[in-house]
Structures are given as C-alpha cells and as structure tokens.
Batch of 2 targets.
Target 1
Amino acid sequence: MTNPSAPAIRFDQVSRYFGEVKAVDHVDLEIGDGEFFSMLGPSGSGKTTCLRMIAGFDRPTSGHIHLYGQDVSDLPPYERDVNTVFQDYALFPHMNVGDNIAYGLMIRKVSKPERMKRMDEMLDLVKLSGYAGRKPSQLSGGQRQRVALARALINHPKVLLLDEPLGALDLKLRQQMQVELKSIQKRVGITFIFVTHDQEEALTMSDRIAVFSEGRIEQVGTPAEIYERPASAFVAGFVGTSNLISGDVAKRITGSDQTFSIRPEKIHLGSSGAEIDGNMVSIDGVVRDVVYLGLYTRYLVQIDQGNDLVVIEQNLKSTSMDVLSAKGQKVRLHWHKDHISRVGG
Amino acid sequence: MLTRASTFLYQRPRLILFLLLGPPMIYMAVVYLGSLFLLLVNSFYSIDDFSGVIIREFTLKTYTQLFTPANREIFVRTASMAAVVTFVDALIAFPLAYYIAKFSSPKLKTWLLIAVTIPLWSSYLVRVYAWKLILAKEGILSWFINLLHLDGALAWLLSFETIGGSSLALSPIGMFIVFVYIWLPYMIIPIQTALERVPGSLLDASSDLGANPLQTFRNVILPLSFPGVVAGSIFTFSLTLGDFIIPGVLGNSKFFIGQAVYSYQGTAGNIPLAAAMTIGPVVIMIVYLLVARRLGAFDAL
C-alpha cells in the first residue's frame, strides 16, 4: 500500500472543525522522507490538531492525509506506522522504564530475547543504559523525555511525531536536548515532525518549518527562508523580531507604499547626515531609548511621530558608556535593499 | 490581642498541628479503636452454659465454638455470597464507571453521578422491603418473566437446593440480586475516581504504540484502575459480610454472619460468641487485603 518514494506525509485539503471553530482550515502540506519538519505557531493555531490527525487521535472533518502514498485518514492510531512523543511524556506509571520502552514490541508479540536486545539498544541510543529497572516516577524530566523518545523509536515508525516535547524542560536542558534530538534523527533517518511554539527551537533544529496561524499555514520554508523572507506580517512578527513599515514612511524609504519588514540586526546606526551608498536605503531618526544587554544593545529609534524602529547592534567595540550616551541623539538608519521583505497588504 | 494570638501560633507549627489533629485522633483512638479492642477482649471471655453469666477470664473456648459445623457453614455461606456479590458488582460497575469517567460530558457526568448516588438518599430498609415486593411470587419481576414466557427457566433456577427456594424473595438468588443492587454505588464511585485519574494521554500512547482497545484495556486501563476496584470490593465484600437485614428480610431461614452475631448478642445474650464471630469478618478482610497486595493491586497507587 505504501510507496517509499512518495512524500512521508501529504495533507490534501485537510480541515478539522470543532463546532464553529475552524481548528484546521483547508491545509495542503507535503513533508519529505527523512525530513526534520517543524510545525510552528502560537497556541490554538492548529499545529497540534494537525499532529493528532497524523497520529490518528483525531480525524479530519474533510480532506485526506496520506502516509507514504497510503490514505490513512480513517485508520485508527494502532494501525498507523507512526509513533508519538507526548507533551507530558505519557509514560505508563505502573511499568518500569524497560517495559515502557518495549511496550510496542510486547503488543506486537515480539519474542522476549529480541525485545530485550532492542530495548538495550534504545537505552543506549538515549544514553540511559542501566535505567531499565527504574519506575518513571524515579526519573527527572529530561530522563522521562528520553524514555518517551526511546519508546516511540523502538518500533521503527515511518514517521515520528513530537508534540512540544521540550516544553517542560529548563533552558539548559532544552538546548542540550535540541542538539541531541537532531543528532538522533540523523542517526535513525526517520522523518521527524516536531510541533513547537518556540521559534528559536524550530529555527535551530528544522530542515523545513511550516508557520501556522488560525488553522492555516502562513508559510512553509527552510529556517533561513522563513527568517529572511517572511511571507506575511504574521510570520515576520512571530519568527524573531521584526520592524513592519507601511504607508507614507514606506514610500519615503522605498518609493512604494507597500508594507515591508526589516530585521533589527540588519539596520545600521549611522551618524546624522552620513553618506549612504547606492545599494542602501536610509531614514533619519532620533534615539528614544537604549537597552544595554551585554552581548548586544537594543535601540529604539523614532523615525516618525509614533513610529519606532528596533535596531540591534552587537557590542563589538563599544562599551556600555558609549551606547548609553546615544540616547536622544539624531541618527541616520540605513540598510541594504536586499534585506527588505515585502509582506503584502 | 487576636494578632498576638495568631503570631504566637504562627511561631509554633507543632502546636497548631497538635491542636488540629489532636481531637480527631483522640476520637479515633478512644471511640473507634477502643471499641474494636473491647470487642477483641470480649471474644476471649466465655459464657457459663448453666447460668448464662459472662466469665471474665482469658480463654480460647469461645473461638473453638466458631468451628462447629453449623458456624463453619455460616462463615462459608456468607463469604461465598460476599465474593459473588463483589465479583458481579465489579463487572456491572466497571463499564458504567468507565463511561462516566472517560466519555460523558462534564454536565452529563454530574447527572450520572447523582443518579448513581440517589438510591443512597432513601432509607436502606425501604429499599430492601421494596425489593421484597418486586421479587415476591406475585411481584412485578415474576409478572415480567411470565410475560417473556421464561417462567420455566425461573422455576428451574429456583429448584436448585442451595440457591433456590419457593420464590425469588425467599431464595439466596433473590438475596444476591438485592445485595448486588444495594452495594453497587459503593463499587462505581471508587472505580470512577480511579479511572478519572488515568490521564487520557496514556490511552492515546497505548494505541499509538499499536495496542487495540482490548489490549489497552488489559495493559493500561485495568492495572491503573485496579486499586479502585479493590477499594470498591472492600466496601461490597465487608458490607455483605456484616449485613443482617437483607438475609433477614429476604432469603430462606439459613443464617448469615450478621444474623448470627445479632441473635447471639441479643436473645441468646452470648456476648463473647457474638464478639468472636465479629472478629471473623475482620480476619477475612485482613487476609483479603494481604492477598490483594501480594497480587500487586496497590502497585499503581
């Protein structure tokens, strides 16, 4: 039934309505074999519903979901070759770590020696050798996370779904797990679909990202595309910080009143009246506020009545004394034309 | 003044603990454990067969009376009834509790829980006598069975010596039906509470890992809710063991433990034997709990 050369996951006009609420609204999507794919969006944007529909916990109101060419829209979860790492890990509290990991094999009646062998391999993969006899309640958050991952991967699923798995971990552990997840994915070569509301996490790990908003996909692309060329004002605002410029001010800068976005770190802060070369655009303003953040400094520059631009400059040569004295000074902001992203509207 | 008092207490957490826990602990120790202890003490006394006076000296004589064939039969009869009632209650309660805990909307859940507990609002005696009428030879149940032309089957069932009788109301089967009905809420509520605590994501996880609904039930739902089943069975089992109303109102003239205790301490005035018979169910319950623990019933607590 399945076709290895077909996309791992294909959404064909998939919708999921809860009464009046359109949780997912006519979504088309293709996820390639072996991709690390992230679904990024604020809560309530439909990303988790999409994941649950791939797993089979939820069914589309209309449309079809294909797994390697096979229409799985109406298959129950236990007949889909897909496994999930849950947000709360969902480890079985009455089983020890080893039994949790081997659960899928036990269900499929794999022989005990084979089960033990693969369980040991998995414990090795997630660096938990020697923990097989512990109860989940005796583990830390990060360790439970690894057990959940091992329990899903031991079945060699065609696609692994991860539902905000790092949300409950502290920052250090989260960053460490991001690197580890990515390296595990490289090693096992399985398609990972990762749901998160953390744009930094998505940018760090993904091959491609789909940005969700209000049940629809705003943009699909590589992290660089999403960041450098946001397709909509929503994407520009949700992924990283962005300055949105529209109307008369936009016209003064680019000659067109079409809205565009410019990233704060792409803007250079020049002294008032500085010469600007031909590939650059510029606008004058007054520094309204300066926030010294150690690694970099964030300036708030007023370019018009009620229109502020955020500018970020790394503190390569300047000291805190220098940057703080900039407050109230007249400046000329300039940036390369290529860094302008038209976001329509 | 009030501020000073509260500051005084705030600085002495142990005193607060004592003030809060003291009264209920004293009540428990004196009234509850104390009476149990007196029961135990009395069971080691004996009665003078001639005068009927209680001899307050330590003896095991009373306990040996428990093992006369007549009393042994009472214990076996009562314990078997309690076991069957518990088993059937668990079978009926589980699907109901599962539906209430996992499928019903919050609003429906409230109504269903009220429906389960409504019988407890009316007197136990009224309900038992109501059942006597329902199960009587000319009662509504017989009428309904006749309507379905199943009266032959009923007569056949009632012809068995140990469980039958002249009518449902006068047979152990009738008693069994009433026991199952009367204690059912005590089985539903603990199971429902236990199921309520099983996160939905565990069920998702199990089916995600390839388990069909039956396998999920056996490997996840049942082990995790089993402490609830055990809690419920403690109620149904011990309540059946001690009950003397239902075997009195319904059933045949064969005694249950509760009735025996009732008659020994009343008309017969044999307090030591009544006490010894009461220790019986206590011992049975302790053994039951130890076995349940050995079987791992409390592992998921």
Target 2
Amino acid sequence: MIVMLRKIAPYLLVAPALLLIASLVMGLSSLLGWSFLDGASGNVASFAQYESLLANGSYRHYFSYSLWLAVISTAIALVLGFPVAYYMEVVASPKQRKIIFASLLGIFLSDYVLRMFGLILILGRSGMVNRVAGWLGIADGPWKLMYNEFGVMVGLVAGILPFMILSLNGVVARLDKRLREAAALLGSPPWRTFVSITLPLCIPGILAGTMLSFLLSLNSFVTPMLLGGGRVDMVAVFIFDQAINLANLPLGSAAALILFLLSAAVIIMLNVLGDRYLKRFQR
Amino acid sequence: MIGHQKSTALQATAFGVLLFLALPNLLIVLISFNAGTTLGFPPSGFSFRWYANLLNIPSFAIGLRQSVMLAVLSTAISVVLGIMVSLAVVRFRFLGRNIVNVLVMAPLFVPEVVMGIAMLLWANIVLAISNTTALVVLHCLIVLPYVVRLIVANLQSMDPNLENAAMLLGARPLQAFLLITLPLLGKGLLGAGIFAIVMSFHNFTATMFLVGNKPTLPVAAYQYIRTESDPSVCALSTLMMLGGIIAVYLMDKWIGLERLAR
Amino acid sequence: MNSPLDFNKRGISLRNLSVVLQGNRILDGIDMEIAPGEVIALLGPSGCGKTTLLRVIAGLQVPSQGEVQIGGETITEVAPYRRGVGMVFQSYALFPHMTVHDNIAFGLKMHRVSPEERARIVSVTLEMLDLTHLRDRYPAQLSGGQQQRVAVARTIATRPSVLLLDEPLSALDKKLRDSMRSELRTLLKQVGITAIIVTHDQEEALAIADRVAVMERGTIAQLGTGAELYDRPNSRFVADFVGYMNYLDGAVTGIAGDLAEVDIGGRKVKALATPRCGVGDRVEIAIRPEMISISGERPRAEAGATNELTARLAGEEFLGIVTYLRFEDELDRKILVIKTGRDRHHSVGVGNECCLSWPADLTSIIAASGAREGSAA
C-alpha cells in the first residue's frame, strides 16, 4: 500500500501545475487554429493569413524592422553593459558592488511603463535634454528625440540594459584574475589581454545576455507605443492592433505565431552556439 | 594590473551608463513635486498637490485594487503549485521528470504578446471564461517559473535526510513536510513570494489583452499618460518606486541578493 | 547496569534481500540473522551496498526481492514511521530550527507521548548522553561530537527495537573517533539494543561490534566475530580488508584430519583444511605478519605443528610502536613480519638469511583464484 502511494505521489504533486500549463498549451493551440482561418471564405484550413503577411510589403516591414531594431539595440546594450558588469565585479569594492547590484535590481523590478514614461520626460519637446540644450545654446529649435526611431531605440536600450548587465556579471565575476596577470607577465598589452583572454571566457554570459536582450527588444510593446507615437512599426504593436482594435484575430494569430517561431528559433540557435563553444573546451 | 587611466575611463563609462538607467526614475521623482501643471523640465516650485490629486483619479484606485488582487491571488496559487512541483522534482525520481521541468519553465519562452493573445483566445472564445479569471490564470502562468526555480534551489540546499530522520522518528510524510521542510523553506518561500508579487504587479503587455474596463495599475497609468499630461502619473510612479525599494529590501533580508543573482 | 529506559530489543532476519536500481544489482541475495541485543557492523569499501542495506531495514528503500523481519514480524513493506527502527545518519540530520531539547522530544511528540512523560524521558536521555547543559542550544552551536550525541539521543528517546547507524563516527577527527568508539559501544550494551553500524573503518567495526559482516559488491563476503575474520578469513578480499596478510601460493598435496599439507614450492607447510579443498587444488596459504617468529636456526625439512622456511631480510622500518621487517623467501616472494615492543630486537642483518616460523593452526587456506572457500558464519 505504502509502496503504491510512493510511486504515484510525484504524479499527484505535479498534476495541478501541469493543469495550469495545459491552459497555456490550449491557448497556443487556439492561436494555431485561428491563424489558419480565412475570414473571407470561412475556410478553416487555409494559409491565407500567412500569405497575406508575407505578400504585403508593409506587413513584412513590421517583422524585418523589428528584427533590425532588436539587433542594433542589443549590440548597443552589449557595448554599454559590459563596462558596467566589468566595473561592478572586478574593480568596485564589495560595498560599491552591493549598491550597484541593489540599484540594478530595483530598476529591474520597477515598472516598465513608468520607466518609458520617464524617458518621455527626458526626450520630450519640453523635456530635460531639450531644455538643457536650449540653456547651453547648442540647438536652434527643439530636437525631435521622440515619436521616432531614435526615441524607440533609446527606450529599447534602456529597457534591456539591466538584463544584459545582470547576465554578464555572473561570468565576469568568475574570471580568474591570475589569467590576466599571467598574460601581462608574458608581455601582452591590456587591450590584447582583453580581446584574447577576457572576452572569450565571457562568451557564455554574452550569449545568454544577447539572447535575453534580443528577445525583449523584438517583442517589445510598451516602448514603440509610448516612445514611437504609433509611427514606429514593431510586431507586438501590430499584433495588438489587429487583435484588439481591428478585431482581426486570424491575422493577429498568424503574426503572433510567426513571432513565436522566430523567438524559438533564436533561443535554439543561441543555445546550440553556446553548447558548441563550450564543447570545444571540454576534452 | 589595470593602468590608472583605463580605470578612470572604465569608471566614468560605468557610472555614465548607470546614470542613464537611473535618470528616468530620478526625473519622475523630481517632477512629481512640481507646483505647476506641466511635465516640462525643470519643475517650478515644490508642492504635494499631485499626490493629493491621486485620490481624484478613479482609474488609479480601481487599478490598485485590481493589481493587488491579481498579485496576491496569482502568487498564492503559484507558490502552492510551485512547492508541490519542486517537492516532486527534487525528492522523487520518476518517469517524465525532465519533461515536467521543461513544461513548468515554458511560459518564460513565450513572448508576452503571444501569451496575451493566446490566453485571450483561450478565455473568451474557447472556454468563455470571465476576463478576471483568465487574468488570474495568465498571471499564475507568468509567475510560476520564477517561483519554482527559487523553491527548487532552496530545496536542493536542504539535507534530504532531514525528512527521512523525521519519518523514522514517527512522523507521517505530511507531518514531516509541515514540521520540518516548510519551516526550513520559510525564508525562501517569502522571497519567492515577493518576487512573484512584483512580477505580477508590473506585468503589462500580456495583461493588456485581457483587461476590459477594469485596468490594472500599470494599464491605468498607461492610459492616463496617453490622454493627460499632468504630473499625477509622476506621483503615482514615485509611490510605486517606494514600494519597489521596500520589496528589494525585503528580498535581501529574506533570501539575500546574492542568491538571486543566479 | 540497568538502563533507566527499557528497550524492547528484537532480532532481525534478512532473507534473500536484493535491490536492483537502474539495472545495477546493489544488493544481491542477502541472508542474515541478527540476535536481539547483538551489535553488528557492516564493513566494506564504498559502493559495496552497506548503506543501501541499512536503508532497506529502515524502510527508506524498498527491496526488489526478499524479506525483512524484525522480531519475527515481516516489515518489508511497512512505512518507516511505523517500524520502530531508529537511525543515526552520517550527517546527523539534526533539525536546525529546533533546540537540542526539541530535537530529542520530536519523536516522542510524533508517538503522542504525554507532555509529562515526554519531559521525563528527554531529561533521562539528556543525562545518559551528558547533554543536559546543552538542552537549549541549537545544532549550529554544537561541536561535531556533541551533534553526534544529540543524534543518538534523539533516536533512542523513542525506544526503538533496532538502532541503525550510518558511519556514525566518520565526521569526527581521529582522536575524537577513538574515544567515542568505546563510549558508543558502552552505551549500546548498556541500553541493550540491537544495533547495526555501517562503516568503512575496520578498526571501528572490530571495536564496536559483536560480529562483523564484510561486504563486497552487494553480497556478504564473510560474517563472523572479529577474531574469526582475522584468524580465518575465507577470501583474499576479507583477509586484506581486516589487517595485513601474507600470501604464498602452492598446491595441496594431502589432507590429514583438520590439517592440509601444501607444497609452496619445494617446501611443505601445514594449514587449516577448509571443507572444500582437495588434493591437487591450487591454493594460497595466508599467515598474519605478527604471528611469524624469527630464529637463526636452520628450518626443519618436514613440517610439524610449526611451519618453517628460509628467508632473507630485504629491509627494516622502525615506526615506533611497530617495526616492519620485509623478507624475501627462496622464490623471491615477499613476506612481511611485524614486531612490537621488545620483540623488535633481533640479530639478523639486512641481506642475511634466517628461519621464519609460525603455527600451522594459524595458517589459512584461500583458493588461488581469490574466490571464497565458503563463509564461516
């Protein structure tokens, strides 16, 4: 009796959580189903939506432009984030590090919508940048830093930086400083040491951070809405528009599925890259 | 080993980036005390009027109530489900253990937009559930992976023989769990709970799909930003930041920030 | 001496116990009878299955086959909280969020003992293990030795009929281990409980237990008292596990009564015949290093009650308590002789020959392939 109970116990324990996950699976299946619906002809197994997305130039633009924005913002975040991670883990004192980490965590946990709103206060026509530029006399008229690609880019980078930094600081913390010392003793200038020793060792963290940041940018909704003024074409906005405002669920579903597949592809690709990289060092 | 010059440049860059990250929040706090009625920089005068004005905005009150309800409910449910799953995965060896692990982490891999529209379809059309119920389910889904990960880490650092010792002393499995495992998990559970509450509270994109005329607080703030342009939102935002600081402090106290870093 | 707590000690029966996990035979057909009040040690290298056997008896592992009986009752499938078995874990597994007092009282609470009786038993137990002054401390505030005593106290407070101990002393440093060894045995005998101790330390096993079961890869190689295992090991494995042993290979040439005659290469020696050895068998004879005497005389041609052979002293190591004398015989086989105290003085110079002699009835026969000749139970 007790033996039987022990055998089924784990299954009983995981059942409720799996039930919850099942709702997600059901939702994704409905998504799939809806994407094959052709509103015009009433056909339930047609590729019409997908064809429409691929054929229509402006629809395609949403995807390609989002991808492009994601790539650029991730690259910028990597370049800006690495120095912070490096400073935090290698140079800063333990107390400084704790303060920085706590601040990052605070930002990470603060409301995303409100952070973007804060950027409006900075980038807007009567925002901080324009006012300061005016005092300093470096501008003739207010700069247009918002409701355009620039504003969205700033927003994306600001949004993903905390994630990038927190992904990087793990690997940076684990760097053995004796490797750098050994390289220096062997005559390597600092920049060379950085490129050949430090950077390669950080690749797992860089890959993780890149993946996380890229996906966050790609799927971003709030940033293009608030800082793009409806003029910056990102996929998430398109999907919301179709599904909620235009009640075109089939098209929205199809777009959502493509986005999902894109995200999955990125995850798989970066994981494979990461594994291959690590395998090279495991004998 | 690093030359003095490089160190200053590094320090400057690092602080520059950190300033860039903190600036939006700092500015919000600044302007929340504006005596004037615009969002312009710099603020003119000092006043608490916008904090007082918060009471006049009904959508914020509704939003607060909705957000709190969702956060508390989804956290409570997810913590219970999370404890059960963690126990199963850490203490038992059963067929499908790895699959369960992957499935529970699944919501992390679905973009928020996709989850939003998927749950919209599921709720309204497939099963005709009320929006509120669907929202609770959505928030549980979002929060579950984080909760499970934190609890699993806690369980793994516990000596598995503690439960065995309790049983050999006469405790039935449930007693062993309630008297030994649960108290020892205690702090970890609180930390996981706070994390979950924050994750749920701030969720926006997916929530937008299911929110009808009862917005959550982030949604209410968003709608206000799009229509009005007075510093009320700044006041609200500052208060939310205060809440966030308390949350970070509590998490440090209960799990230690180091543990969260991995 | 009467113990202030009475224990209903019971015997243990293991019948054909096997545990197969993921294709590996962790335990293979274990049979063992343990008398009430007896202290048994399970001795063996890591991976031999000793801890698994303990867990089966505790109820933490269900066997794939076989039966466990305690006091005549079959308990193979009974849950651990109903078996009346106590266990002390290697990590002690003290409840970190409870005081010493509450740790000890826990089992009594689970057995629904009344608060007054509980208080009495906890006090008595604390005193028995000299822990009264620590009753309100938390495990983290205790030393290793103190934690170990609390672990034992916690288990015996519920008066189990069987006590299991998994490497109870391995977490302590050497000096503490040696002193706790005798304390543990005294306690077990004073309380009179049936106990099984798992250890990889042969000194510990021999010192604490009445009988020792040497285990190898899931089976019991030999079960017997310390003296039996030492003087009459049934295999090379057992002989090597308990002390040092010398081996000389040869062939059985005759059997007369209890003794067998073995030709070890030109010279004949006598050894204790085992039930299965026959004339012509290839065997190894085994003799303990401290049983060998040195003399300057020539060895006799025919073996009598004493075996003799010629050997050359190849090296000598003085280690304080003991001196190792390394000899090589006529066929260049190595023989170790251990001497202590005044016996270590001898007149043989390094490189010189002398006569080594030892009693025939302390010589064991071990089958040449290393397989067992049948266990002495």
